[in-house]
Amino acid sequence: MNKAEPVNNKLGIRIMEDIVRIGTMFTFVIVLGIILVALFDRGRAGEAPMGSFEARNFNTGWEIINGDSAETVELPYTVPDAKKGDVIRIRKSLPYNLDDGMNLMIRSSMQDVDIYIAGYKRASYNCDNIDGLTNRIPSAYVVCELDEADSGKTIEIVIGFHTNTRISGITMSHGNNVWFDVIKDGLAINIVAVVVLAVGLVLCLSALVIGNKMGIHTFGPLGLLMTDMALWMFSESTIRQFIFGRPSLSTYFAYLTMEMVGIFACMYFDEVQHRVYHTMYTVLECIMMTQIVANVILDAANLALFYDTMFMSHFWTGMGALLAYICLINDIRNKRIYTYWITAIGMAIFALIAMGEIVGFYINRYHLFGGYVGVALLFLMSATIGQMIYDELQSTDRAKKTQTGMTVNTIETIAGSIDAKDEYTGGHSERVAIYAERLAREMAADYDFTEQDILNVRYVAQMHDIGKIGVADGVLNKAGRLTDEEFSLMKKHTEIGYEIMSSMGTFIDGMLDGIRHHHERFDGKGYPDGLSDTDIPLIARILCLADSYDAMTSNRVYRKRLSDEEVREELLRCAGTQFDPALTEIFVRLLDRGELRANIVDGVASDDSGEIPPSAMLENILHKDLLDGKKILHASHVRMACYMLKLMEKKGKYYSVVFVGPFGSIGDTLKECIGNKDINIRYTEEINMVALFDRTKEELSEFESKIRESMQGAEIRVVKTVTGKEGMS
Questions:
Q1: Does residue 409 share a domain with residue 384?
Q2: Partner of 517 for a Cys bridge, out of 302, 540, 610, 684, CB 3.0 to 4.6 A?
Q3: Does residue 140 fall inside a structural domain?
Q4: How far apart are CA 69 and CA 87, in angstroms?
Q5: Burial state string for 311-345 with b = 16 or more CB within 10 A and e = fewer than 16
Q6: Helices 250-272 + 306-334 axis angle, to 10
Q7: For the ranges 126-130, 296-300, 411-415, which has the lowest average pLDDT?
Q8: Do residues 153 and 93 lie in contact, with contact meaning Cβ atoms separated by under 8 Å?
C-alpha cells in the first residue's frame, strides 16, 4: 500500500480535477441544448431555403355511388352497410389548375383500386394484375400521374372491398411530394426496425460464434426474435413500396413473421428462466408451429386466407405472454427471480407492449404498427445485456471474494503457524492485525484509505512476522534477553520474510513494505535499511505502532505487561524517535477515547468479547511456569497444542485442558480415556497436560471419575483446569 501523505498539493489537484469535470459537463449540457433547439425550433428566418414538400388534401366533395344510391361525402369515409365483395365508385371533377408532373395518391387498405380519368383507366392495383397472388392483396399506396390536360376532367375511383369498407384520404401534389408525409410519418418506425434488425443479426452471429463458449444461451433466441420482429416491421411499413421490389409478397411474409414471434419469444423466455418451465414452453411452441402449418395449408387450398386465421396466431401469442407472466410470478414467489431480475423487467415490459400491439390491431387497424414493440425489444435487449454484465460482475466479485477468502485463510494459517513456533508471543500476529486495522480506519479520512486499503493493512499485519520461520528455535524461544549476536540473527526475520513473500509474487498491496520495514524507526536507527521519517512506507509505520503496542501490553518471559498508563507514556515518549508522531497522536487519541484497547486480560490474550479462550489461558500458564523457572519438558509441543486449540476455536469448537498427575499412576487410564482428537502431552516429569476435544460437563466429570478410580482412592491432583464455554471450570 503506497498511500501518499495528506498534503496541500493533493487537495489542489483534486480541486483542479473537479473544476475540469464540472466545466466539461456544463459545456456538454450546453451542446445538447443547442442541438435540441436546432431540431425543434421552426423559426427559419434567415436560414437557407429548402423549398416546399407540401401536398394538398383532395378529400371534399366526392360523390360516392353504391349501387343505385349516391351521396356526397368527405374522405376518409367508412361505407355503412357495405360488406366484403362489394364494389363502389367515387367521383369528382379535378381542379382546373393542374400542371404537368402532378400526382394523385390514395391508399388501398387491402382493396382493389382502379382510377379512371375521363373514362380512361390511368392506374390500377388489384390481384388480377399480380401473377401467383391470392385474391387478397396487401395494402399499398396507389399513385396516378396527372398533367395539365387533365384539368377539370372527371376522376372516378372504383374500389373493391376485400376486408374492410373504409375509403382512405386522397392527396395531390407536384411530383412525388405526395409521399413526403408518408415517408416522414413512417421514418421513426423504420429507423427502429433497422436498429432492431442490426442488433438481432449481431446477437445471432454472437450466439453462433461465442454463445456456447461464454454460456450466453439467451442471445440466440433473442437475436431470432429481434430479427423476425424487424422483418415484420418492414413488411408492415407504410413505405414498403420503397423497401421491396415486390411489396405484394408481404401478404405472405408479413403473416409468417408475425406468427413466429410467439415461438421465438417462448424460446427466449425459456432460456432466461433457466429452462425451469421448459416442458410448458415447449408444448406451447409446438401448438404455435402447428397453427402456422395449418394456416399455410388453408391459405394454399384457398379455404381460409392468412388474414382470416390470424386471430388464432394472435391468441397463441397472447398465451405465450400469459405463460411468461405466470412463470415470472411463480419465480417471484420462489425467489428465483433474483437470478435474472434485470431481464425479468424487460420481459414484463416487452410482453405487455406486444399484447398492447395485438389489442390495438383489433381496436384501430389503421394506425402504424411496430414502433412501440420495436422500442420494447431494444429495451429487452438492453436488459438482457445488462443482466449479462451484472452476472459477470457478480461472478467476478464472487471469484474475487473467494480468492480473497483463500488468501485470508492462508494468511491466518501462516500467521498462526508462526505464533505456534514462538513460545512467548502466541496470538501476537492476530492482535497486531486488530490494532493496525483500527488505527488505519481512524486514519482513513485524512489519508484517503478505502475499505480495501484498511483490509490490506490487516492482512499485512497478520503476515508481518512471517520471516520468523527462518529464525532458529533456540534464538526465537530463548528464556531471557538475547545476546547481541542472537539479536542480530533475530533482526534477519524482516529480510527473510521479504524474500519469502517476494518470491511468491504476493498481490496484496503493501505486503512487502510492511514485512521488510516494520522495525524501521522514525529517527533512522531501525533495521534492516535504516530508513527515517516519511521514507519509511506508511504501512510499516502503522505496523511499528501496532507491533510495539502488543509487545508492551503482553506478558513476556522476562517481564509482566506494562500498565495502560505506562504504555501511553511510552508511546508519547517515543513519538518522533521510534514512532511517526502524527500516527502516534492518532493512536493515543484512540486509547484515550477507549476505542482501542489491548485484547489482553491480566496479560492474557482475549477474544473480541473480552473472554479468555482456552488457548490463551494455556499460553498464559506456559508463560508463568517458564517465568517461575519450571522445567517444561516439551514447551514447543504445548505451543503447538495452543495452535490447534486456536484453529478449533475459530470454528466454534473448544478443548477443555486439564493438568493431572502424578503421571505414573494414571498413564494407562489416560490412554483409555483419550480419543483421536484429544491431546496428551508430558508437561513436566510428574504432570500431564490433557486437552479434551468438545466435551460436555458430564463427559468431563466422567473423565475425572475414571482418573480418581485409577489412583486407587488417593486424592487426584488436578493442577490446572482450563475449559471452553461448555466445559468444566
A1: no
A2: 540
A3: yes
A4: 13
A5: ebbbebbbebbebbbebbeebeeeebbeebebbbb
A6: 10
A7: 411-415
A8: yes
pLDDT, position 551 = 86
Position 467 scores a pLDDT of 86
Mean pLDDT of 593-605: 69
**Domain CATH code at residue 151:** 2.60.120.260
Tally the domains of the chain.
4
pLDDT recorded at residue 719: 46
CA distance 388 to 206: 14
CA atoms within 13 A on the CB side of 386: 14
| In a shared domain, residues 516 and 636 | no
DSSP one-letter string for 131-158: TT--S-PPPEEEEEEE-GGGTT-EEEEE
Q: What is the pLDDT of residues 50-81, one digit of tens each?
A: 777 888 899 999 999 877 778 999 999 998 88
d(CA 516, CA 467): 9
**Quick one: pLDDT at residue 570?**
92
> Residue 672's pLDDT is what?
79
Whether residues 238 and 335 share a domain: the answer is yes
Residue 51 inside a domain? The answer is: no
22 in any annotated domain? no
Same domain? 466 vs 595: yes
Q: Residue 621 is part of a domain; what is its CATH number? A: 3.30.70.1150
The cell for 139 is 395494402
Do both 296 and 327 map to the same domain? Answer: yes
Residues 680 and 710 occupy one common structural domain? yes
Does position 555 have pLDDT exceeding 60, yes or no? yes
180-206 and 219-235 helices, crossing angle to 10°: 160
Residue 316 Cα distances to 48, 270, 290, 324, 463, angstroms: 54, 16, 11, 12, 65
Q: Taking residues 361-388, what's their average pLDDT? A: 77
Residues 376, 425 share a domain: no
Please tell me the predicted confidence (pLDDT) of residue 606: 59
Q: Indicate whether 151 pLDDT > 90.
A: yes
The residue ranges of DSSP E strands in 100-249, in sequence order, are 102-108, 111-117, 120-125, 140-146, 154-161, 166-167, 170-174
The CA distance from 555 to 676, in Å, is 33
Query: Which of the four pLDDT bands, split at 50, 70 and 90, describes residue 529?
Result: very high
Residue 423 scores a pLDDT above 60: no
Q: Are 606 and 612 in contact (CB under 8 A)?
A: yes
Q: Is 689 exposed, middle or buried (0-12, 13-18, 19+ CB in 10 A)?
A: buried
Query: Can you give 368-411 as a three-state secondary structure string?
Result: CCCHHHHHHHHHHHHHHHHHHHHHHHHHHHHHHHHHHHHHHHHH
User: Residues, the chain, total?
Assistant: 729
Range of the domain at 711: 614-722
Q: Which residues of 418-440 are buried (b: 16+ CB within 10 A; e: fewer)?
A: bbbbbbbbbbbbbbbbbbbbbbb
Q: Read out DSSP for 337-363? A: GGGSHHHHHHHHHHHHHHHHHHHHHHH
Q: How far is CA 204 from CA 193, 222, 224, 392, in A?
A: 16, 8, 7, 20
Per-residue pLDDT tens digits for 12-44: 777 888 888 898 889 989 998 888 888 888 777
Give the up-direction half-sphere exposure of residue 570: CA atoms within 13 A in the CB hemisphere. Answer: 14
End of a domain among 377, 395, 413?
A: 395
Residue 530: all three cell numbers together:
535504516
- The secondary element (H helix, E strand) that includes residue 330 is helix 306-334
Cα separation, 156 vs 93, whole angstroms? 9
Q: What is the pLDDT of residues 124-134, one digit of tens each?
A: 998 777 776 66
- Asked whether residue 274 falls in the same domain as residue 351, the answer is yes
Provide the whole-model pTM.
Answer: 0.60
> Is residue 77 packed enough to be buried (19+ CB in 10 Å), middle (13-18) or exposed (0-12)?
middle
